Structure formats: C-alpha cells, structure tokens
Amino acid sequence: MKIAIHQPKLLPYIGYWQLIYAVDIFVIYDDVNFVKRSFINYNSILINKQQKKFTLELIGASQNKLINEIKVGENSNKILKTLELNYKKKPYYNLALPVLREIFCQKEKNLAKFIGYSIKKILKYLEIDKKFIYSSQIDKNNNLKGQFKIIDICQKLNAKQYINAIGGKSLYDREKFLSKGINFNFIETNFTKHKNLDNFEANLSIIDIMMNYSKDEILDILNSYKLV
User: Fold this and answer.
1) Which sequence spans correspond to the domains of the chain?
2) C-alpha span between 64 and 166 (Å, rounded)
3) Which residues of 26-41 are buried (b: 16+ CB within 10 A; e: fewer)?
4) Contact 161/3 with Cβ under 8 angstroms?
5) pLDDT tens digit sequence for 161-194
6) What whole-number distance in Å separates Cα of residue 120 and Cα of residue 38?
7) What local confidence, expressed as pLDDT, does residue 46 receive?
8) Considering the entire predicted model, what is its pTM?
9) Which residue in 21, 25, 8, 20 sits closest to 157, CA to CA?
C-alpha cells in the first residue's frame, strides 16, 4: 500500500497531481495549522505571458486555526471570470472550463472540503480513480509532530511505502520510516517543457495544463516522474 499525505492546495501544480497519481491512498492533511502565504488558497496562471496570482478569499483565516476550521469567502465567481477571459482561446477550454465552473460554483464552504472536492472533480475529468481520506478522520496520536505524526498515520493505514513531494527533503529522515518497515521515496517530476510556452513555469496551477493539453496528454504528463 502506497500513500501520500499532503496539505490541501488550491488547484496545485503538476507535481502535486503526480504525487496523487503515484499512490493508492492520498491523505488530505486537513487537521494541521493553516499557513499564510502558502498555496493552500492561492495559485498562479499565465496572463499575457506573465505569471499572475489568483487568491481564494477566506473568512477567519489564522495560523492559530486548523485548515479544516477555515471557511471560503465569496470571490469564486470573480476567479472564474478571470479564467474565462484569459483561457477562452486555448485548445481545451470547452472541456476544462465546465470542470472549473463546477469547482468554483460549489456550495461547500469548508476550505479543506472545498479543495478536496476540486481534486476529486479534476480526477474524475481525467478518469482517474483514487482513494482519498482526510487526516481528521484518522484515529491517530495528535500529540505527535512533524514526521513522527506522518509515520503514525502510515502505520494506522498499514502503508508499506510513503511518497512525499521533493520539496520536503529537509523535513524527513528516511531511516526513521525504514525502521518502522515503511519504504520512503520522494517524487521528482520529469515534466520540464510546456508545449505552448517558451519558458516553462513549473509552479503554475493545473488549470494551465488542463487548458492546453488533452486528457491523454495529461495522463502522459502524470506518468512523467521518478521516485528518488
């Protein structure tokens, strides 16, 4: 059983989706503290060939609150209109936009579940079946911190392999996982060239990929990674 555990991110970059694609169970890490100026509620797209940020409005956001204690605000329609205007000439606009409209027009106001819904909708569009669980639903030792809490979750789910985003290299000690019988890998993307961009922007939202690539091409991109 391969699992990954990651904080919810708003329509994240391709590496996040490769992480989901690589595992059997993806744990949405929703009962940890919200972090301001993170990708939990914002991301970037290209507007006039420039990377521009869009931000989902939040109500009562605080680093003293858990992610699943925060509510979504009222600017979803404004973000959607920006996407409509910016991407209307892209080749897969007519396929991708209805998915994004469902995401931004959803009635869910819990931030973690809003993002969880968005992940499931995009995977459904790509015809990918994955098992999800929120970390708040797992009976675990919440007194543990950092990688020790991750190990505890892995053990509760009977994981044989834990896979993490490459950006977390400094946060984890592989040997601590191995000592508990859990193989540990980082995932590293091999997707480095965007067919419609002169300069590839690796951290753009999945929105840009959906608008520019067919479903089959996106599946090929999702397979373009290595475990290290």
Assistant:
1) 2-227
2) 27
3) bbbbbbbebeeeebbb
4) yes
5) 999 999 888 889 999 999 999 999 999 999 877 7
6) 21
7) 87
8) 0.94
9) 25
